[in-house]
Amino acid sequence: MQKISFKEFIEQVEQHINEYSPETLRQILMEWAKSTPSADRHQFLARLTPTSTQQQVLPPDKELLEQIRELAERVENGDYCDGWGWDDEIYEERDFGDESWTGEVDEFFSKAHDALVNGHYKLAENAYSLLFEILEMSEEPGHLPGSSDPTIMLETDLEEARDHYLRAIYLSTTLDKRPVRLLEAMQELNYPIGDNFNLKGVVNAQREPLPDFTEFLTRWIAVLKTENNDAARYLLCEAVMLLGGIPAIAELARQQGRINPKAYIKWIETLEKEGDFQAMLSAAREGVEGVPKDFVLRAKIASGLVRAGKHLGNVEAQLLGCREAFYSDPSLANLLSLVSIAEQNKRRSEEIEAAIDRIISLMKKEKGYESRISWEQRDTWEATASENLLNQAYLLAGRYKEAYDLCKNQGALGWSYGHNLKGLVLPFFLMLLSKGEKQHPAQNLEQVWEQSVNAACRYGCRLVDNEEEIKNHHIKSLDDI
Prior knowledge:
Elements: H1 6-19, H2 22-35, H3 41-47, H4 64-76, E1 81-87, E2 92-97, H5 101-117, H6 121-136, H7 158-172, H8 178-188, H9 199-203, H10 213-224, H11 230-256, H12 262-274, H13 277-290, H14 298-312, H15 315-328, H16 332-344, H17 348-364, H18 387-397, H19 400-406, H20 422-433, H21 445-458, H22 467-479
Antiparallel strand pairs: 1-2
Helix pairs in contact: 4-5, 4-6, 5-6, 6-7, 10-11, 11-12, 12-13, 12-14, 13-14, 14-15, 15-16, 16-17, 17-18, 18-19, 20-21, 21-22
């Protein structure tokens, strides 16, 4: 279930209140009361007390930063840790010791939020910054005892806390310095910028609109255009949409789509949300033509062709989308999608053979995963292929001699054989030879076959999301013989 921001939550609550009559609201409240556990009844009644119509503004907590620094010093000195060792419950090593630090950190996050709400923006910024520095100490042993990922021990919603931190920076910084400072803070947090961490989260962290936001967006876009990394390109697409809507993101895609395929993806996804599937189909076609064919990210643009084609009942668009998605991102999942739609068009053999040619062509270029040098430039990663995928394609195409030849130089199968091509081919041949038998000669053959398919889904096959679909295709390939 998609998370709802604070702003969206309050707006939806108000919408419900306006829709319901006083009697309906009374009924809802009574149902809540009846379902409240006995231990929580006093708390329920306390919440029914009306609050003052005037929000009380609290003065700044002058001791807050010093208290957080004292906590940071204790954590850095290892005061909470007794030692490092194996934990039988979680089956891994971790720090042992006093885990009360979690309560202290949660309390300080709450106080940092109070500072933000009460307008003490610089205090909130500094408090959040110190707290995130404390959590970063978990990257090395001897600081924060508990889970190997201590952040999951906190009650604080860290995604919201990051948004509140960035909002405090926005509000405490002058307009001319705000874009650069905000981008620096995002990068310093070392959290992946994307759908869960972006400018929209900062906007929706509180109900009140951000001041000078339109002017900020103009300056923000100018700064982002000088950056050359995937995170900045994501933020640029988001900012352009916020400022100018669909026409602006379409223009950005046409101008920068070759180096920023995310612009096309954002354009396509926005049209899909609007329900304008004909325009979505046109944008996806444009993106497939405008982005280099070898870019892996182009496959997401091609998938827009597939989705638009489904909405419009356009089978040719679906086939084109699946074909181009596989060309740009040769993976087992994309191959199976291509096979499925090709069967509907009675072009299964033709499409599989073209897919095999693509795999062999990429393997001849010797483009391995090591060619993907920078994680900051994933948007322009180019397509790769492997023997594992070629092996899968041969079996799906019924080219068993080629699949057998691929296995000739493979070692003997052991208890763990994920990367060994024989791990799929041998059970496949055994299942093939036993087809039609009332009882398999090897009683556990079907179990071995299922395990081999599971392993094939996990090795050498990027972006495999639907394991059941993969199993069904392999089983169907046997049934078709």
